[in-house]
Specification:
CATH topology: Farnesyl Diphosphate Synthase
Helix content: 55-70%
CATH architecture: Orthogonal Bundle
Bound molecules: 3-methylbut-3-enyl trihydrogen diphosphate, magnesium ion
Distance between the termini: 15 Å
Shape: globular
Structural class: mainly alpha
Strand content: under 5%
CATH class: Mainly Alpha
Number of helices: 17
Strand order of the largest sheet: 1-2
């Protein structure tokens, strides 16, 4: 169990983040509908894990808190954009997020896509403008923050991981089409058209039939998963999860370290910690999709199974997944032990990831 002192600190940091996010939004002069859509998702709560990690990493390295505020806001903006897009009908097709109907349900798909785009660009404007409380960051630190955030958000990080996640899921659809249900989706060379690769059935009844007909999924290389060892599938999963979720979480730690001018050893330790809790975080997300409660989660559970997602509990089972996330949290705590007493909040936060119910 996390301590009441930790819970109080967490809530203090969240309050700082919420206030700074509101201030950033208040500055904008966007079209009213766009601002409304961005505000709807960004200010809907959420755990604020990534910005809190930026602030905690700054703190553990003895930094000035005001120097970390802009980066903390920026990573939450990138994360919120990723959620809006993740929920779109062309991706996970979800109706609830952060306890509310998803952005596209309320504002329509076009505005939801644009609200996401707007949050992504606002993130970089926020870091570059460096408007933290008494922020004293130099130009080269700001450039480094931008580099860390863009790498983690892009093709070798979150966006790349989302692509792999969808490909692992959609393999079943593509295979059913290859099996003759929709042969027109193949061109002369036998390549699936890009439309077929990303298209989900319009009709949910049809979709479930497709899954029932073809329960075994096909990997990127076209190999039938049933012929692949559990080790190979866990490696694939670990890559997907590390990219789609772990990269931003690890980046949060690095951003905080840069704002505190941490040395290389401190940065390395925080990176290791971030890598471990990032993977543990997505494993617990997969577990909560099975065991969680919609009200607490603020999103609908059971969606991974509906969509045929490749998940840790799906491959390793619930108990082994729990064990894996416990191991990762332990490794994370070991990585930051060098910070001595100052690591206590990071250790409790790692514990929070294991115990969370939302
Ligand atoms: C959900 O992230 C998406 C994943 C990367 C698993 P969070 O669980 O951090 O969502 P919020 O920010 O608290 O809403
Ligand atoms: C999403 O993973 C990761 C992102 C990059 C947004 P999930 O698709 O499992 O997240 P939830 O369960 O919808 O929050
Ligand atoms: Mg997803
Ligand atoms: Mg999703
Ligand atoms: Mg999930």
């Amino acid at each position: 169990m996390t301590s009441s002192a930790f819970n109080a600190h967490l809530s203090e940091l969240r309050t700082v983040v919420e206030a700074a996010l509101s201030q950033e939004l208040a500055r904008t002069n966007w079209p009213v509908s766009l601002k409304e859509a961005v505000e709807y998702s960004l200010m809907a709560g959420g755990k604020r894990l990534r910005p809190v990690l930026v602030l905690l990493a700054n703190e553990v390295c003895g930094g000035i808190p005001g120097n970390a505020i802009a980066a903390a806001c920026a990573i939450e903006m990138v994360h919120t954009y990723s959620l809006i897009h993740d929920d779109l009908p062309s991706m996970d097709d979800d109706d609830f997020r952060r306890g509310r109907p998803t952005s596209h349900k309320v504002f329509g798909e076009a505005l939801a896509v644009l609200a996401g785009d707007c949050l992504l660009t606002l993130a970089f404007e926020t870091v570059a403008s460096n408007r933290g409380l008494d922020s004293q960051l130099g130009g080269s630190q700001i450039a480094e923050l931008i580099q860390i955030l863009s790498r983690a958000a892009g093709g070798s990080g979150m966006v790349g991981g989302q692509v792999l996640d969808l490909e692992a899921e959609r393999g079943s659809l593509v295979r059913s089409e290859i099996d003759g249900r929709n042969a027109k989706s193949l061109d002369k060379k036998g390549w699936k058209s890009s439309a077929a690769a990303v298209e989900k059935s319009d009709n949910s009844a049809d979709f479930s039939t497709v899954q029932a007909i073809t329960p075994q999924r096909i990997s990127e290389s076209g190999q039938n998963e049933s012929n692949r060892s559990p080790e190979t599938r866990v490696e694939e999963l670990s890559r997907i999860h590390t990219m789609k979720t772990g990269a931003l979480i690890a980046a949060a730690l690095e951003l905080g370290a840069v704002t505190a001018q941490a040395d290389l050893e401190q940065r390395k330790r925080l990176r290791q910690y971030g890598h471990c809790i990032g993977l543990a975080f997505q494993i617990t997300d997969d577990l909560l999709d099975i065991t969680g409660d919609q009200i607490r989660l603020g999103k609908k559970p059971g969606r991974d199974a509906d969509l045929g997602k490749l998940t840790y509990p799906g491959v390793m089972g619930i108990e082994n997944s729990r064990e894996k996330s416990e191991q990762l949290v332990q490794e994370a705590c070991e990585a930051v032990a060098v910070f001595g007493d100052r690591s206590k909040w990071l250790k409790e936060l790692a514990q929070f990831i294991l115990e969370r119910d939302h």
